[in-house]
Prior knowledge:
Elements (H helix, E strand, L loop, with lengths): L19 H14 L8 E2 L1 H8 L3 H13 L3 E4 L3 E4 L4 H25 L2 H20 L2 H19 L2 H25 L2 H17 L2 H20 L3
Antiparallel strand pairs: 1-3, 2-3
Helix pairs in contact: 1-3, 1-7, 2-3, 4-6, 4-7, 4-8, 4-9, 5-6, 5-8, 6-8, 8-9
Amino acid sequence: MRMSDSVTADPKEKPDDGSLTERAYRRLEELIATLQLRPGAVLSEAALAQQLGIGRTPVREALQRLASEGMVVVLPRRGILVSEIDIGRQLRLLEVRRELERLNARNAARRASREERAAFAELARALEEAARTGDDISFMRLDRRFNSMILQAGRNEFAAKAMRHMQGLSRRFWYQHYQTVLDLPRCARLHKDVAAAIAEGDEAAAGAASDRLIDYIEEFSRATL
């Protein structure tokens, strides 16, 4: 089981796909989260601007946003470094994620439209299939859809913003360790349980399923020690 070692930007991406700062942020976040920019790497605004084909000002603004999220560290006279991956920090992040994930799952179960519930039911079936086949590439795509759908259906912009603030760090930690410690079938089925509960409009079941999922993610994190 192996995921593609790199994620590259789509060369067909149009210049007007969001602001230049947003484009720079998305690309840099992806490079850091997928470990193409390794922890401890020293970053150069000029080199990144050339690599991304985006001006230095949007790159600088994107790096400032990544610094606020803990993805990079700005050190006086040393420059900008990709932050290290720290298990203690990951566990503290999970304390917050647990509460937000439960809130978002319950909100989604209560507020999702009929069309969204149908989409969650289909997502649950796809996650069950990923669990059965052990397809890690499909699971990663489904996981990102899962996260996006819950934030949309939950309709709480403050909770959504807080979750997005943490997603890069969470994804990077997962990406570093999934090949050695992830139980993909179990993880996929735990995601499926949340999606199925939202599809049924069952708030209590969605919250309980979310807690079980975070229990496993914490177990996964501790297994990296």
